Amino acid sequence: MREKLIVEKPRCKTGIDVLDSELNGGIPVGSTVLVSGGSGVGKTTLCMQFLCNGVKLGDKGVFFTATETVPKLKKHQNVFDFFDEKLIKSGELSIIDLWSISDRLGLSPERYNLEEANILFEVIRDISKELDAKRLVIDSITSLCYRLQTREMIREFIFKLGSSLAALRCTTLLTSEVPPRVFQYSQYEIEEFIADGIIFLEDVERRGDLIRTFQIVKMRGTSHGRSKFVLNISEKNGIELAPMLKSHV
């Protein structure tokens, strides 16, 4: 009987030890991963830490913000030890305001038509290629999808974006905003089917306190754990994950 040849896929380490362990070494290179959750659960922090840790491993990163201005984002991230503005000055980490680009291109401030959506897609792809980015974040894909007029446009945009960045061997995190205590991973219920992976963050109420939780829902190209973890955010370590006791669920 012929033995099956197992080819180990290259990994993009997040630098968060528990997460990398659950993913058997990290996210498969070139994947598009949806980071879903409500407000305040740690989506932006997780994504920025993913980029900053990547710089330490030799990966350039780009953070496209569509939810807050660049100065405001840097102010909020400066409290964490993993974030260093020197990474921006050196060109290893780029933070770009997506709506400023949209305005400079003369795109509609309300809803994009198909041509405008393609222009924005090409700009994101070309910037990533020009900067030789190996890690990319869009925060949030929900804000971007709001300007796309149809579900078909949303599907095509995310598929083209993921495919083109995968060809550049760029691993992408897309944050997705969902209402609290609603069992869904994206606002439009399209994104999760196109994404290669889903990481779900949520608040769980326990005895009057809100506990942040973390769970890998899916990740194509690798076996992975699906246990729920308690998520803590500290200035020193950023994202901290600890096993969740059954009594906390």
Protein model, in words:
- The chain is an alpha/beta fold.
- It has a domain at 30-198: 3-Layer(aba) Sandwich (Rossmann fold), CATH 3.40.50.
- It contains nine helices and eleven strands.
- Strands 5-4-6-7-3-8-9-10-11 form a nine-stranded mixed β-sheet. A two-stranded antiparallel ribbon has the order 1-2.
- Strand 9 (209-219) and strand 10 (228-234) form a beta hairpin.
- Helix 6 (114-130) runs parallel beside helix 8.
- The radius of gyration is 18 Å and the shape is globular.
- Residues 1-5 have low confidence and may be disordered.
Helices, strands, pairings?
Blueprint: E1 11-12, H1 17-22, E2 27-28, E3 32-37, H2 43-56, E4 61-65, H3 70-77, H4 86-89, E5 93-97, H5 98-104, H6 114-130, E6 135-139, H7 141-146, H8 151-167, E7 171-177, H9 191-194, E8 197-206, E9 209-219, E10 228-234, E11 238-243
Parallel strand pairs: 3-7, 3-8, 4-5, 4-6, 6-7
Antiparallel strand pairs: 1-2, 8-9, 9-10, 10-11
List its traits:
249 residues, Rossmann fold, two-stranded antiparallel sheet, disordered N terminus
Number of strands: 11
Instruction: From the 3D structure, determine the CATH topology of one domain.
Output: Rossmann fold
**How much strand?**
25-35%
Main sheet, how many strands, which sense, barrel?
9 strands, mixed
The CATH superfamily of one domain is P-loop containing nucleotide triphosphate hydrolases
* Residue share in helix: 25-40%
Structural class: alpha/beta
